[in-house]
Design brief:
heterodimer, A: alpha/beta, seven-stranded mixed beta sheet, five-stranded parallel beta sheet, globular, B: mainly beta, five-stranded mixed beta sheet, two-stranded antiparallel sheet, 1 helix
């Protein structure tokens, strides 16, 4: 970052944060409604996590294999590129917002590069619209816009388990991201565990790429869907997706074990195997059902998703607990939050997948560009997707008894290496019953990731056995003084700006 | 180690080019478009950061820039996320976790 770039200001009618399904849709809708749109994204090229693909400098025309809804991406991307050519979208990739502000002008976003740039790249890039590269400032910069659409997405929710800090243990979505981004696998023999339909595409992707999936361990049971069949039937394409995965599982003989969990990762300096067990409906281990998988390279975990809430929380948007226990933003039918001019779309309004995120993004983008009521057809599609998501959350809950899986020395906060017993001790003897007091007593959530990984689990542990983290506790955990690590120079530039 | 080692040949439709990185001072082949973490994993290297308190090994975890477990020094810039940085020819990568002899091919 060259010092001259600090403080460079981009002005737009609408700023969009994120270029995944929701962000791309929001940007396109706002631009097509006539607004000048600035898109800030941490990724190096459009797509977000769901449509992550290999660098377009290496594979210029990805064929979408291994992706779902790729046609939707191709359509949005074409409209995104067309709007860039018209000069209506300013695309700023590789930047993270470390501080958002609400002020008289609307919103100001202070950004920092996601990745340190090579000296040769220090000059401002100005690639032709349509390339994955952007046309923004090379260093950090400031974006000012009258309205803001936040589409920061989410990441795999994690529950600690003995040994999960060993190398070779990854987020399920991390394995998928590795495959989508590199075109290769991070190992040969995999176990995928946790809960939810997302485990299926992760395992199917591994198998289709030539990896061996020893087992998929799902803590819930298919019977958990029975009370929700009406909601599931409202989104028939999900059943088709499920049938595709079933075919892949059959072709590769992937064992899908329900009511099953990983109880421990085995290995000294890296994961080498897992212990498993069957559980009851509450997630309690059933004695006598223990098993072991040996010779495992990679263990992938996913317990649903955690929406990236720091920007909505930092701006003071009202929040609530969703059916899956996640903190999400409250929005109206136009996706506008409690803060006028601040729109939220995608996982930050409730984990619901890419199709819903696109609908929400289109609604938010159009509304942010001009006062416009939500499209009735979009609204009804969104409702069906939300009902499906709610059914999914009920069918794949975080098991009530998960805290019983921990041993006293299980790492909970990976960054600060805080153990389960340190947390329960702070809770029981010091009265640390929420994430904020837990932080000050144990440093859980104070490290590099700022509680993004352990925030949910630590909040639940602080609340007590069989209790989930409260909205207040999760909101406190998402209150991060900085949305991303920044340099001292960037902090100092704030004063010279104002 | 794995079938994925030396991913250069697996660039579908793209030119088969090999890049050379230096990891902890030793040369390492990589393919264009790989992330630093992707290149290291392709050589069977799973850990390159040492934790501050317990000096425990860490490598890729979230894979998408959220967890900061995979921090590495790239061309002298400290604390870069190996899952996000794309490899470049001649890139110098330095970890903080000591690599055992024979760990790498």
């Amino acid at each position: 970052m060259s010092p001259g770039k600090v403080g460079s200001i981009m002005k737009a009618d609408v700023a969009v944060v994120g270029a995944g399904p929701a962000g791309l849709a929001a940007a396109v809708a706002a631009a097509e409604a006539g607004a000048l749109v600035a898109v800030v994204d941490a990724g190096a090229q459009p797509g977000g996590q769901f449509w992550r693909h290999r660098p377009e400098t290496v594979v210029p025309e990805p064929d979408g294999s291994g992706h779902h809804g790729w046609r939707s991406y191709v359509d949005l991307r074409a409209r995104f590129d067309a709007a860039r050519r018209r000069g209506q979208i300013i695309y700023l990739p590789g930047l993270q917002v470390w501080m958002p502000e609400k002020n008289d002008a609307g919103f100001t976003l202070h950004t920092t590069p996601a990745v340190a740039r090579a000296r040769s790249e220090d000059a401002a890039t100005n690639d032709p619209a349509g390339s994955g590269a952007g046309n923004g400032p090379a260093g950090s910069g400031t974006v000012v816009a009258r309205r803001l659409v936040l589409c920061p997405g989410g990441y795999d929710r994690q529950l600690p388990v003995p040994g999960w800090e060993l190398p070779g243990v990854m987020a399920a979505g991390g394995i998928q991201a590795f495959l989508k981004g590199n075109g290769t696998l991070p190992g040969r023999r995999f176990v995928v565990a946790g809960t939810g339909p997302f485990l299926l595409p992760v395992a199917a992707g591994i198998a289709e790429a030539g990896g061996q999936v020893l087992a998929v361990l799902e803590s819930s049971s298919p019977a958990a869907w029975l009370p929700h069949l009406r909601a599931a039937a409202g989104v028939p394409e999900k059943a088709l997706e499920g049938a595709e995965y079933a075919a892949v599982f059959a072709r590769h003989r992937i064992p899908y074990r329900t009511r099953s969990i990983v109880t421990e990762i085995l290995g000294q300096d890296r994961a080498s195997g897992v212990r498993t067990a069957k559980v009851d409906a509450d997630g309690r281990v059933r004695p006598g059902t223990e098993g072991v998988y040996d010779d495992v390279d990679v263990v992938g975990f996913g317990w649903g998703f955690t929406p990236q809430m720091e920007l909505p929380v930092a701006l003071g948007a009202d929040t609530r607990l969703d059916a899956d226990g996640s903190l999400v933003g409250i929005v109206d039918e136009r996706q506008e939050s409690s803060i006028p001019g601040l729109f939220l779309a995608g996982e930050v309004t409730g984990v619901g997948g890419a199709s819903l995120a696109v609908i929400e993004g289109l609604t938010a983008g159009a509304a942010a560009a001009r006062e416009r009521a939500a499209d009735k057809a979009d609204a009804s599609r969104a409702t069906r997707h939300r009902r499906f998501a709610e059914a999914m959350h009920h069918a794949h809950p975080v098991p009530a008894a998960w805290q019983e899986w921990l041993t006293p020395d299980t790492t909970v906060c990976r960054c600060e290496e805080v153990t389960a017993s340190q947390i329960t001790e702070a809770r029981d003897t010091l009265g640390a019953r929420d994430s904020r007091s837990l932080k000050s007593f144990t440093r859980a959530g104070m490290g590099w990731c700022q509680g993004r990984v352990c925030g949910f689990a630590a909040g639940c542990l602080a609340a007590g056995q069989r209790v989930s983290a409260s909205a207040q506790s999760l909101s406190d955990a998402a209150k991060r003084p900085l949305g991303a690590p920044v340099s001292i120079g960037e902090l100092a530039s704030l004063e010279t700006d104002s | 180690m794995s079938t994925q080692a030396q991913g250069a040949a697996e660039t579908p439709g793209g030119p088969t080019v090999e890049l050379t990185l230096r990891f902890d001072g030793r040369p390492l082949k990589a393919a264009p478009g790989q992330s630093v973490g992707g290149a290291l994993a392709a050589h069977g290297i799973t850990a390159w950061r040492s934790t501050r308190k317990g000096a425990r090994p860490r490598g890729l975890f979230c894979g998408i820039g959220v967890c900061f477990d995979c921090l590495v020094t790239v061309d002298g810039a400290a604390n870069q996320r190996a899952c996000l940085v794309e490899v470049r020819d001649g890139m110098q990568i330095d970890g903080s976790y000591p690599q055992a002899e024979g760990d790498r091919q």
